Structure formats: structure tokens, C-alpha cells
């Protein structure tokens, strides 16, 4: 897979889905405008915002020629990213990056990942991220060196290495690596995990830059802090099952890793329900998860998979054999994950 070469007007297109982000959007746009990389454009996709976000987008476009904006009826983040990707290709972008409208880039995010991908001759680069609430962490210098993760190591890292993570926003992609179907894949939750899995499958490896190049803002409206809709449980389980079922046969160790990832997801989702005060309203979902956890408890591909962390094995055992005690433990010690 090689980057597209069609008459580029910008080397990198940064796609920013925007929906009612007026509080944090100016800070996000400032971090993009101050990138120490010359040839990029930023595509803002206003996804039916009803606050002041459209005006902020329009004013930014008027003030800085590197920015352009699309206004569309609210269609969801996946559709917004897809619309942004279409616009990026119209701009002739060779590389694609993504940023959430409430987060920030390190000033050298684009330059560092672009240099690493180019030097490694790979269509994919990524970096670590950190989290913040009000004040962005101090910016550490970006490294010149990087580590090359060759297939299937990069797929293993996607599933189990939090430094790589499954978000779209801490990565740089060759424009030809992603398709619209990857981004708009029918999931509302873990859609980025599934998109990355399919993109990583198409890439021979990934250049990993060991610095916090992406700053993820945590606040009450963040995706990771919202309530637990039933669709979230269904989508996360479906994403893990699709990954488990699509491992190339030439990588049996990766299959073992994907099996462990799937079982860990069952245990994790069950614990998410158990830790909630309204856990009884999720009886059907919890029952389905418990069936899967119980069936896999002694399975060498699942509950006895050597790649499964010991903590998950213990949690699975407690889920099955001491459910009342395990629920009390979840509610007492895991309340921050509600």
C-alpha cells in the first residue's frame, strides 16, 4: 500500500468532526493552526451543531486559508469523518489524520508522524496520547527516532498495547489505506477500533513514535464518560467478534491474541454493568455475557488462553462462581468507570 499521488494541494488533511463543541473547539483549532508542519489542510465537518460551533468554524476558515468547513445535517461521527475524507481526497491529500473537536495536538504531531512514516516507508504511523481536564500537560520534545512494528506485531499492539490504542486520532494514514466503508462501518461504538483493525490488516507495519503527541480531553461530555447505552454493549461485543473472525490464517499467534481480546471484552463489559447502580436494567445483556464467559471459562482459546491476563481470568472466575461478591467488588472499587 502506497500513498496516493494525485496532484496534491496539501500533503496531510486533518479531519475534525464537530458537533456542539463550542466550549473546546477554539483550543483544538489553535493546536492545529500552530503545527510545525507547513503543507497541511484542516477539514472541519460541522455535523448539525446547534451551538456556536458553526460560527467558530466559519470564522476560522475566513482567517486561515489552510482550513475549510463542511456544514451537514447531523449524521453522526462516522458519517462526518467519511465526508471529511471525501473532501480530503478532493484536496489531493496524500495523508489523513483525525482530531476530535475537544482535544489537542502536540505542536510536532504532524511533522513527527509524517517523518516517521516516510523514513519507514510505511503507510501508517502512530504515537502515544495522554489525558487532561482543564490544563494541557507540558509538551515534551518530540523524538527523532521511532520504532517499526512489522506485521503482525502492529496488529498485536493495536489489540493489547494502550500506547498504540484503537483511536483514529493518534495516527497518520496514507490516504489510500482507508476506505469509506472502514470509517462508516455500522457501529456507533468501537467503530474506530474496527476501522483501525481493517486498516492495520492492509498495512505491512506501523511506525511508532514514543511521545504523547495527542492530548485527549476528559470531561462530562467525552465519549468515555457517557452513560452505557445497550447499543454500546452490543457494538463493542460485535467489534471484538468481527476481529476474532478475520485474523489471516498465516498468523496463528495473532488468532490466539484475538481470541483473548474477545474474551477479555466479554469480562470487561460484564464488569461495566456490574459496577452500575442500575445494573438490574441490563439483565438481558448481562445474562448473554455471562453465558459466553461461562462457556469459555475452561476453553484453551478463551478463558484458559495463555495470552489472557491473570486479572481477567480471576474476574471471569468471580463472574461465574461468586457473582454477588463480584458485583459488590465492582461497585465499590470500579465506580470511576461507570
What is the averaged pLDDT score?
Answer: 93
Distance between the termini: 41 Å
The number of distinct helices, counting runs of at least 4 residues, comes to 12
Percent of sequence in beta strands: 15-25%
Judged by helices, strands and strand pairing, the structural class is alpha/beta
Order of helices and strands: EHEHEHEEHEEHEHHEHHHHH
Unreliable segments of 5+ consecutive residues:
1-8
Identify the overall geometry: globular
Helix content: 40-55%
Number of strands: 9
How would you summarize the topology of this molecule?
Blueprint lengths: L11 E7 L6 H9 L6 E8 L5 H11 L3 E6 L4 H14 L4 E4 L5 E2 L3 H12 L3 E9 L14 E4 L2 H8 L10 E4 L5 H4 L7 H12 L2 E13 L12 H15 L7 H23 L8 H14 L13 H12 L1 H11 L5
Parallel strand pairs: 1-2, 1-4, 2-3, 6-9
Antiparallel strand pairs: 4-8, 5-9, 6-8, 7-9
Helix pairs in contact: 5-9, 7-8, 8-9, 9-10, 9-11, 11-12
Would you write up a description of this structure?
The protein contains 12 helices and 9 strands. The protein is an alpha/beta fold. Strands 1, 2, 3, 4, 5, 6, 7, 8 and 9 form a 9-stranded mixed sheet that branches. The longest helix has 23 residues, at 252-274.
Give keywords:
single chain; 338 residues; alpha/beta; nine-stranded mixed sheet; disordered N terminus
Overview in brief:
Helices cover 43% and strands 17% of the residues. It is built from 12 helices and 9 strands. The longest helix has 23 residues, at 252-274.
